[in-house]
Design goal:
Number of helices: 5
Strand order of the largest sheet: 2-1-3-4-5
CATH topology: Rossmann fold
Number of strands: 5
Shape: globular
CATH class: Alpha Beta
Largest sheet: 5 strands, parallel
């Protein structure tokens, strides 16, 4: 059985990477294959996802505008007729969460979120997308 492959990424402007690296390690312990990178341009998220043949994208948004990034990323997916489940972690204003979910984000995990619940959520998403 192949492992599900996750792209964990953050903007190159984000200085704080402790949380994303911690969750990355928990995902690996949970049985996922993980690719970790940072991006300068939003289109790089799509390009890396395609190159690495990932199943799901985890996006860290603490120091950057999550609404802008998600809007631009979803527009790229739409133009390319591709779709990936996307989960966001980081410091995201509560007011933005409903808009992010309306754009297609599966879930937003803020500071203090239980890492085991995050891994379980990734597994549930992968089970749904694989028809399990």
């Amino acid at each position: 059985m192949n492992k599900s492959k996750v792209l964990m990424t953050r903007s190159h402007l984000e200085a704080h990477d402790r949380g994303v690296k911690y969750i990355l390690r928990k995902l690996v312990e949970g049985g996922f294959e993980v690719v970790y990178t940072s991006f300068r341009e939003i289109k790089e998220i799509y390009e890396i996802a395609m190159e690495e043949d990932v199943d799901i994208i985890g996006l860290s948004c603490s120091a950057t505008n999550s609404l802008y990034i998600v809007s631009a990323l979803m527009e790229i997916f739409k133009k390319k007729q591709e779709s990936f489940p996307v989960i966001i972690g980081g410091v995201v204003p509560n007011l933005d969460i409903p808009r992010l979910k309306k754009m297609g984000i599966k879930e937003v995990f803020g500071p203090g979120s239980d890492p085991d619940k995050i891994v379980k959520f990734f597994k549930n998403i992968m089970g749904q997308s694989m028809g399990n």
